[in-house]
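### Sample
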Amino acid sequence: MAVKPFQITVSDDILTDLRARLARTLYTTASDSAYWAAGVDPGYLRELVTYWADGFDWHAAEAALNAFPHYVADVDGRRVHFVHVRAERVEGAPEPLPLVLTHGWPSSFVEMLRVTRLLADPAAHGGDPADAFDVVVPSLPGFLFSDLPRDLFTRRGVARTWHTLMTETLGYRRFGAFGGDIGGGVTQWLGALHPGEVAGVHITSAVVTSNFGENPATPEERTFLDALDAYDVTDQGYSEIMCTRPDTIAAALMDSPAGLVAWIVDKYRDWSDCDGDLEKSWDKDTILTVATLYWATGTIGSSFRQYYDYANNRPVPTIGVPAAVTLSHEPAFANFPRSLAERIFADLRHWSVPRRGGHFMAHEEPEQVARELREFFRPLRSAG
């Protein structure tokens, strides 16, 4: 399980081919007169693609990414890529708590970079050095530089891999876990499977699952679940195709960078807390950094695997380790009742509804996330 330093490098041949494809992009016309009502606005897409071809500086973006320490390691027979930022040690401060941050879809490790510096070096950002973390940000299996698992992609399986990465590969005896979306599911499973090593779990998008057989949903819970079903009717088209025909849509997105970035930004705009203005949450350079990473690694198709295999996920059992929820501010989780989280978390110590920061909260509101993580984990740092 040797850990090897890693540098992100995209060849000039790939970049030349990318720009040529972008220059040949064909655009559709809008299906609805309302802006973005039928998906990505063609005018915005043209603007974004033009900038990708002629204005975006990938080499500057690549250098900024490589300013973080990247590594790869063989974990359970498959390659895992991760960023590992060790805390700034301050004399007299306690040992930093290791913390693994897990992203979701259509995201990447980039989502977690803004908060990583705040967590690893709080003193440099007006915080207490006693709150420092050793931060590990892996790329999910099949995303960018990490291999797909040999068998099914499940949240439970990723949690086992992350446990091996943190304990056997990196040698941490005890650690915390944070995530949203897929990363939230992985985080829950880390707490459920490994209570001896996991100090606590913290999620944002409230991806809890529960069996209502013995304890029927309360009226408040039923109201929320009905609202979520209604929301999914308008939002879930992307999911249905990736769950049932991922290779069909992947064929288009692997061949068209414009299609690839459209597929990504559709969800960035819908799920971010941006009031319909995508670039309040995601500036063009960050969007195109993520899109270029997906394009250069050819992994948009493999990132769909967790959708195709979704039916193989089992319900999460009751989680006994200390837990926290900082609820994301997005339509899918509006009025999410605390009682749903309490069905899964037996020791829910921190519940926060800041009404700021959407599905990609660590990127959208890094100071808020850093503050909430410090507060939640502060009393959990020692094994007691």
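The two ends are 30 Å apart (CA to CA). This sample (Epoxide hydrolase family protein) is used throughout the tutorial notebook.
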